[in-house]
Design a protein that fits this description.
The chain is an all-beta fold and 123 residues long. Helix content is 0%, strand content 50%. The protein is built from no helices and eleven strands. Strands 2, 4, 5, 6, 9, 10 and 11 form a seven-stranded mixed sheet that branches. Strands 1-3-8-7 form a four-stranded antiparallel sheet, with no helix packed on it. A hairpin with a 6-residue loop joins strand 5 and strand 6 (58-60).
Amino acid sequence: DVQLVESGGGLVQPGGSLRLSCAASGASYSSYCVAWFRQFPGKEHEGVARINPDGGRTYYADSVNGRFSASRDDAKNTLALEMNNLNPEDTAMYYCAAKWGPCVGWSHRGFNHWGQGTQVTVS
């Protein structure tokens, strides 16, 4: 089974940058779709970026496209999210997630492996 642990959240000023990391353990996740979600208070998880397995494409939500960059290193079982030009609307709890097989759509419901979340506050 895959376990995920995020790190790197914190407080940043508008226009600033943060890098989130996610370390996977328990299984090789090269065949997993991996993704970043965020959750605003009282709302469902919102997809931010997703990366297909085996060198597949990366997709971004419109709200972050051009500002955020997601990457994965299957040799190290890590996932990263580089966030630039942050604004207060990006304030949320951020989660990495994984599911076996290709990524399909933005719904969080197909993901069965989740990290504990890391808070990002832009103020």
